[in-house]
Specification:
- The chain is an alpha+beta fold and 746 residues long.
- The protein has two domains: 223 residues, Beta-galactosidase, Chain A, domain 5; 448 residues, Glycosyltransferase.
- It is 28% helix and 25% strand.
- The chain starts with 41 loop residues before the first helix and ends with a strand.
């Protein structure tokens, strides 16, 4: 097949040194209901600090405003334990110098003073006091406040720290309910300890406890706020330290003694270093790309959340710090070549919570993999169905895909056998419950009165829309879901063979092949040379051009003769913004580049498309998508790919237009660079055969060398280096431990 035209859109690129399209190789060769309703560019106006299930979301000055519209706060277990936290000096707000939450588990804010007065007397001229706020989360929220006097004279300052707690449920904060939880809470003060207490509708007691390393001079209580006041005397160039700890307490949790600030930071740093040591190391000759990979790996560690004896990659900050089926599975899948632990633990966790009954309130069915688990008041009280909620049509096939891919990378047959009942229950759900009308396709239909209307990864209410602007009516069979099912069954066939059950393997392969035939007949739109996004309740094609069919390239469900026209259209100007493939063609009636799913650009969507293009040997096209996302990351804060950005066409000079309330960091956005690099290098593992294959590696022109260190396949490790010389990319082994065979596939 001839590759899609590699030429970029006619608009000039922002940075020609980065935005280059690789030359041609030799010829032989998802939220719920709607997006949250809060309106602000949070990614650029906030600081996020997270560890475990607890995270802090503040403004750039480190403050939280009581009753603000930004969703700021200290959260744990889907509850806002601190809704107000503001620092003033002599009653004045400070002036921001700089702020950063680059490390994920820690933030730094540097501030200075306006003119400060005591009465009518100027006691500290502007920019003579430096205040540094350093925060970390380790069970508690810790804040160390350093105040330094740069005046040549003594200064006495009054430091005010004002606190409030509304205990709002995350659904209330997101505007998805009408104030079912939280409210104003009058604090109590004893022995310089401030406590806010909330008795929820779920009959669970929640408490916010605030302690100080240095006892305040006084604590004032007014209008449900508590203000700790410190009189601080500073000699010339003297520094004083204040330390605050905030403990969120759920139910009958014992009062935990807070470790000191230095111990907390030490343990956090050690944990991140351990995460990096156990992961594959990737070093390239492009320092910006190295920084992107480092950022993504640290963000995934920040999103890693302990659950019981294991853990899971939470979906994203601030809205989705919880267990998500689809998100956790896809992000773990993206990371397999780098670290297999999140995949193993996600599989165990989701198998343990697999559906066991028919329950319309939760959209639960036997064998189904959950969509989302919430631990807040509204879920616990039964006001929301998220305990857990199962309204996801694609979590179940993604569970099977990850299960099979985990075996491919680890060769752990014992683990695979132990989880096989869950995998077979998932297969059972696909065949018995997923196909609602017996036509051979998996559809979704929301049954819960508080559930999600659209249950694919594009789960906003208006994401499935006909070409004339009408909303598609469920049950709906999504194009990408058929691909996921196809891939799940073909990969499960590999599992059955590895476990000595060839008859079951042949049965699944036959089922997958018949699905492929039906799909290419029912979903193909010959006049558009593209696949329909879905089939509606009447089995009518949803003919709006969307990115969904691009996932079919990744799954392999697309017939060979249809792959090239599909790829060409995905990269045509109406679909490709210059920053990536849009979720919807700009020629569509419902197109809106500022929407959540109808014209925006999602990194994970593009990563799957890029990997799919490579599966069909469109290496240049893969590199074109990867280049666009790399350029987008380079222009982002901290070199961090957000959950999504707006789909406006790329022009010069500019950067991607931020989506106002995108999660950042977000798990499958952070995982996208690893999946794309794996596709560029052509790496695939079959650990049970002691085999690592390299298929058509083709580095883009902004990469000359890529060194992969300590790549683990089964019980073996290998280090290798890829080098590009002109149009040719070659690789060589640097070291190998174990019996692994490394084979080039043509």
């Amino acid at each position: 097949m001839t590759e899609p035209d590699p030429k970029p859109e006619p608009e000039p690129t922002e940075n020609p040194s980065l935005s280059v399209v690789a030359p041609s190789p030799p010829a032989a060769q998802s939220e719920e209901g709607t997006a949250p309703v809060l309106v602000t560019d949070l990614a650029s106006k906030t600081l996020a600090v997270k560890e475990g299930e607890t995270f802090l979301y503040s403004d750039l000055e480190g403050n939280l405003d009581h009753g603000g519209d930004f969703g700021l706060g200290l959260y744990s277990h889907d509850t806002r334990y601190l809704s107000h936290f503001r620092m003033t000096v002599n009653g004045r707000d400070l002036v921001l110098l700089s702020s950063s939450a680059e490390r994920g588990y820690m933030s730094h804010v540097d501030l200075t003073n306006p003119d400060l007065y005591e009465g009518d007397v100027l006691c500290a001229p502007q920019q003579t006091i430096n205040v540094r706020r350093i925060r970390a989360i380790y069970g508690h929220l810790f804040e160390r406040i350093r105040i330094k006097n740069y005046n040549p004279t003594d200064v006495t300052l009054e430091i005010q720290l004002r606190f409030g707690a509304d205990f709002a449920d995350i659904f209330d904060v997101r505007g998805m309910t009408h104030r079912h939880s939280g409210g104003s809470h009058t604090p109590s003060v004893a022995d310089s300890v401030i406590e806010f207490v909330h008795e929820g509708r779920d009959r669970i007691r929640r408490m916010t406890r605030i302690r100080f390393g240095v006892e305040p001079d006084r604590i004032d209580v007014e209008d449900a706020l508590a203000t700790a006041v410190f009189r601080v005397h500073l000699e010339p160039y003297q520094t004083r330290l204040l330390v605050v700890s905030v403990e969120p307490i759920l139910g009958t949790e014992d009062d935990r003694a807070a470790p000191n600030f230095d111990h907390a930071v030490h343990e956090l740093r050690r944990s991140y270093e351990e995460w990096e040591r156990e992961s594959t190391q990737i070093v390239t000759d492009n320092e910006l790309f190295n920084q992107l990979l480092d950022r993504s790996l640290r963000d995934l560690r920040a999103l890693y959340t302990r659950v019981g004896e294991g853990g899971v990659l939470a979906a994203g900050i601030p809205w989705y710090v919880t267990i998500f089926g689809r998100d956790s599975l896809i992000a773990s899948h993206q990371l397999l070549a780098v670290n297999t632990r999140p995949a193993r633990e996600a599989l165990e966790l989701l198998a343990a919570r697999q559906g066991t009954e028919e329950n319309d309130w939760r959209d639960e069915q036997p064998g189904k993999i959950l969509h989302e688990v919430r631990d807040g008041e509204l879920a616990r009280a039964g006001i929301m169905p998220h305990s857990p909620y199962f309204g996801s049509v694609d979590s179940t096939p993604w569970f099977l895909i990850l299960y099979a891919q985990h075996l491919r990378w680890t060769g752990d047959a014992e683990f695979a056998r132990g989880l096989l009942p869950a995998a077979e229950a998932a297969l059972g759900w696909i065949d018995r419950y997923g196909d609602l009308d017996g036509d051979g396709f998996v559809e979704y239909l929301c049954r819960s009165p508080r559930g999600i209307r659209n249950q694919g990864w594009k789960d906003s209410h208006d994401s499935m829309v006909h070409a004339d602007g009408r909303l598609a009516e469920p049950p709906i069979a999504l194009s990408e879901v058929q691909g996921y099912v196809y891939l799940a069954k073909t990969r499960m066939a590999d599992v059955y063979r590895a476990l000595g059950r060839p008859e079951d393997a042949l049965r699944l392969e036959d089922e997958a092949e018949r699905l492929k035939i039906r799909f290419n007949q029912a979903f193909w739109m010959e006049d558009e040379r593209f696949f329909a996004a879905a089939l509606d309740a009447d089995k009518q094609q949803v003919r709006t051009l969307m990115s969904n069919p691009g996932h079919g390239l990744y799954s392999g469900i697309v017939d060979e003769d249809k792959a090239l026209p599909l790829a060409k259209r995905l990269l045509a100007p109406d679909m490709f913004s210059g920053w990536g493939v849009r979720t919807m063609s700009r020629s569509a009636a419902a197109y809106n580049p500022m929407s959540y799913h109808n014209g925006s650009v999602w990194p994970h969507d593009n990563a799957l498309i890029a990997a799919g293009l490579k599966r069909y040997r469109f290496a240049r096209a893969t590199n074109r998508v990867a280049t666009a996302l790399f350029d987008a990351a380079v222009s982002a804060d901290y070199l961090r790919l957000p959950e999504l950005f707006c789909g406006f066409t790329r022009r010069t000079p500019n950067r991607p237009v931020s989506y106002p309330i995108a999660c950042s960091p977000q798990a499958w956005a952070a995982g996208s660079p690893f999946l794309m690099l794996q596709a560029i290098l052509g790496l695939s593992a079959r650990a049970h055969e002691n085999l690592l294959t390299v298929n058509l590696p083709h580095l883009p022109t902004w990469l000359n060398t890529v060194e992969v260190r300590n790549l683990t396949v089964g019980q073996s490790t290998v280090s290798m280096v890829f080098r590009r010389e002109g149009e040719i990319t070659s690789f060589s082994l640097l070291s190998r431990e174990g019996d692994l065979r490394v084979v080039m596939e043509e």
